[in-house]
Amino acid sequence: MANPPDDLLDHDYDGIREFDNPLPKWWLYMFYGGIVAALVYVPYYHFGPGPLPREQWAEDMTAWWQQHPPPELADHAELEAMAEDPAFVAAGQATFNVRCMSCHAIDGGGLVGPNLTDEFTIYGQQRDQIVAVIFHGTKNGMLAWKDQLGLEEIYQVGAYVHSLRGTTPAKPKAPDGVPIVDPTPEIAATAQP
Q1: pLDDT (tens digit, 9 = 90+) per residue, 42-70?
Q2: What is the distance between the alpha carbons of residues 54 and 64, in angstroms, rounded to a whole number?
Q3: Which fold has domain 76-191?
Q4: What's the rounded Cα separation, in Å, for the pair 186 and 11?
């Protein structure tokens, strides 16, 4: 490859003079190629039929969720039947002690997360509501455990959390949420179809 000529430009700025060396051809080809690509890309994707990356992602995610719908969680009656087995609840306690105690304390009294033993609730105290919170997480910082625990493990933890209500933790956290109001038997009986 031949060396470019060392031609000095005619201007002088504070005693500094510069050479007039041309840019390498490969650099110029890439620069002009980028301009041509932009002239095609912008009209096609921003004003034409081409989908933008965020639109393509949304379309792909919609198709994925149609092929992989989230499981339908068990209802209150099914969860209550599962919780009648002491081994089922004990398995939930073992998982709770590993996964949940860092936020809710080993006895459910609450640390970063709310107290699970008192008569207050943020998202509901029914078995299906507890399982939904464990499965989906919350906007206030609780992790959605659906990607880390199996469905049966989530049901087990939900059964154990439900059993914590009314227990006495060593250092209970101040109440969060609204007071739990259990329906009286007469109201509950009339509410059922």
Answers
A1: 999 889 998 888 999 999 999 998 998 88
A2: 15
A3: Cytochrome Bc1 Complex; Chain D, domain 2 (1.10.760)
A4: 98
